[in-house]
Amino acid sequence: MRSDKAKAAIRDLMIANRILGAEGVVDAYGHISVRNPDNPERYFLSQSRSPELVSEDDVMEYDLDSNPIDQQGRPMYSERPIHGALYQARPDVMSVCHSHAYALVPFTVTDTPIKPIWTMSGAIGAEVPIWDIREEFGTKTNMLVTDNKKGHSLARKLGSRTCCMMRGHGAAIATKDLRLTVLVSVSLMLNATMLMQAMSIGKVNFLTDDEVLGLTDILTGDRTLGRAWQYWARRVGFDVDYNPDRLSIEG
User: Fold this and answer.
1) Domain range for residue 63?
2) pLDDT, tens only, 15-57
3) Which CATH number does the domain housing residue 72 bear?
4) Of 36, 132, 180, 226, which sits 20 to 30 A from 109 (CA to CA)?
5) Is a pLDDT exceeding 50 seen at residue 250?
6) How many domains does the chain have?
7) Which tens digit of pLDDT belongs to each residue from 196-208?
């Protein structure tokens, strides 16, 4: 029997999937997860399904080696080790997204770094490294993170940061809160779009490290997250009420 906290986490995870699909962070592929609030050695992730179609019934539970607790014959994402490995490496992480945002890919295959240029992108961090699967696993791979060795390699590249690009693939985002993971995933994508536009005009004036720190304090606060979550949830058909502890989802 799942607790009210776990049920709420699953409900919010379903809405997060819908948001990321609608906003273009994920397409038919990509995924987002949340750590089980009742058991930090497990996490929730949908069965293999396009994020914009995910329902609460699609959500499955996994251990941190990304083994299903009760599969019931359901198909699973092949890249679920991204999630398990990041949860293992980072006890502070409560939610993980594997982004497929198209705007990110050019920055994963060039020497132009993604850095914040926009106030709402401050929480992506001052440095976003690029994980290149070839560095540890050579050129004869399918470029997917389909086992724990590759997941742990990605986790090492991410380190203590919030975002890590994946060469020719997308990105991994890991934060302390499901709503924050959605905010960072969206802002990373939009920052990439605006950065490309800025580069076509002239020399880019990036945010300073101090500005990034100051913005991160604001953007990770409950008021900011609540406001963004309400906006995005409404755009995918859910009314939300804000309270100081969590957002109550209705509808």
Assistant:
1) 4-250
2) 999 999 999 999 999 999 999 999 999 999 999 999 999 999 9
3) 3.40.225.10
4) 180
5) no
6) 1
7) 999 999 999 999 9
